[in-house]
């Protein structure tokens, strides 16, 4: 799992550097450049990822629970017959 | 649903939520940073249309081969599809408030999407109002085909025929003109695939839960008789 996460992170960073390399465009259009320069955008990203991770984990546990219930019911049904 | 598909979906969403905020986007007036909403708002609609398509497929299959399993699949795809549609509507309204000036702009795309959602809400009202299980399944399968046939023109055709502010409608091209350099596509397509997979995953869970519910009802019925 650790290896998976580190390879995932390195891929994202590689793609990010690729996109930074391709930076173009007019600078007169106001964008959140300050937020990026300060690095505080990473706080926002981290928070969103925590929420996402939490919800996905919840989905996985629900998945397990439904599977368990299915086995339980099949088991009970089998015994009563 | 296969476990590796779930892993892919999770991987894609983690990538999208990181890249969607960090990667470069075209600098455009009025839209500014809100252009990033594309990565999160549009995949909801892609998810909805995909799930509704799967739903209508199982409705047709049900009419040819009326099994409880086909009915369950049709209902749950429509159910999760509707959730995606409501999320798409809410995110679109918030975005419209900043890009167009008001939450409800009365734009043909907004109105069409709202009517389409109401048509699908009526599907569940129809299901709720019929007692007999087989009648319920058959009636709702027929209605589902009509609902799908109404949703496609309401969302994809009518907004293109009139003037609309929404990209991809009323002579407006989609976001194609903005992302000529493919920067946005690298995040947008993974977002679409990721959310569709998550939708299918939730559907599979709900189908399993409904199957269990039906089995418990069957056991109870057997006890009574």
From TrEMBL, chain A:
It comes from the Bacteria. The keyword Membrane applies. The chain crosses the membrane at residues 41-60. This is CcmD family protein. Pfam families: CcmD_alt. Keywords: Membrane, Signal, Transmembrane, Transmembrane helix. It comes from Chryseolinea lacunae. Residues 1-22 form the signal peptide.
UniProtKB/TrEMBL annotation, chain B:
The keyword rRNA-binding does not apply. InterPro entries: Cyt_c_assembly, Cyt_c_biogenesis_CcmC, Cyt_c_biogenesis_CcsA/CcmC. It holds the Pfam family Cytochrom_C_asm. It is found in: Membrane. Keywords: Cytochrome c-type biogenesis, Membrane, Transmembrane, Transmembrane helix. Coiled coil: none annotated. It is a multi-pass membrane protein. The chain crosses the membrane at residues 42-60, 80-100, 112-130, 142-161, 187-207. Residues 11-158 form the Cytochrome c assembly protein domain. Belongs to the CcmC/CycZ/HelC family. Required for the export of heme to the periplasm for the biogenesis of c-type cytochromes. PANTHER family: CYTOCHROME B_B6 PROTEIN-RELATED, HEME EXPORTER PROTEIN C. This is Heme exporter protein C. The lineage of its organism: Bacteria, Pseudomonadati, Bacteroidota, Cytophagia, Cytophagales. The gene is ccsA.
């Amino acid at each position: 799992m650790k290896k998976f996460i580190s390879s995932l992170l390195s891929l994202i960073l590689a793609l990010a550097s690729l996109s930074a390399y391709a930076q173009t465009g007019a600078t007169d259009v106001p964008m959140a450049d300050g937020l990026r320069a300060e690095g505080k955008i990473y706080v926002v990203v981290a928070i969103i990822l925590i929420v996402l991770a939490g919800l996905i984990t919840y989905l996985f546990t629900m998945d397990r629970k439904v599977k368990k219930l299915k086995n339980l019911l099949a088991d009970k049904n089998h015994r009563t017959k | 649903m296969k476990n590796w598909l779930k892993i892919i979906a999770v991987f894609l969403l983690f990538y999208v939520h990181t890249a969607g905020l960090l990667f470069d986007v075209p600098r455009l007036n009025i839209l500014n940073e809100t252009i990033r909403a594309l990565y999160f708002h549009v995949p909801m609609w892609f998810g909805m249309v995909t799930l509704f398509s799967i739903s209508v497929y199982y409705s047709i299959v049900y009419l040819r081969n009326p099994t409880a399993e086909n009915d369950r699949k049709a209902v749950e795809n429509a159910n999760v599809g509707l959730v995606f549609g409501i999320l798409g509507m809410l995110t679109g309204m918030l975005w419209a408030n900043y890009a167009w000036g008001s939450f409800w702009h009365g734009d043909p795309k907004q109105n069409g999407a709202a009517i389409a959602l109401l048509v699908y809400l009526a599907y569940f009202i129809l299901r709720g109002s019929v007692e007999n299980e087989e009648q319920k399944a058959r009636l709702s399968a027929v209605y589902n085909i009509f609902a799908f046939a109404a949703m496609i023109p309401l969302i994809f055709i009518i907004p293109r025929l009139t003037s609309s502010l929404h990209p991809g409608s009323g002579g407006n091209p989609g976001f194609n003109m903005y992302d000529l350099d493919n920067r946005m596509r690298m995040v947008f397509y993974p977002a679409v695939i990721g959310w569709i997979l998550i939708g299918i995953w939730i559907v599979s869970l709900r189908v399993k839960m409904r199957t269990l519910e039906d089995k418990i009802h069957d056991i109870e019925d057997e006890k009574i008789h």
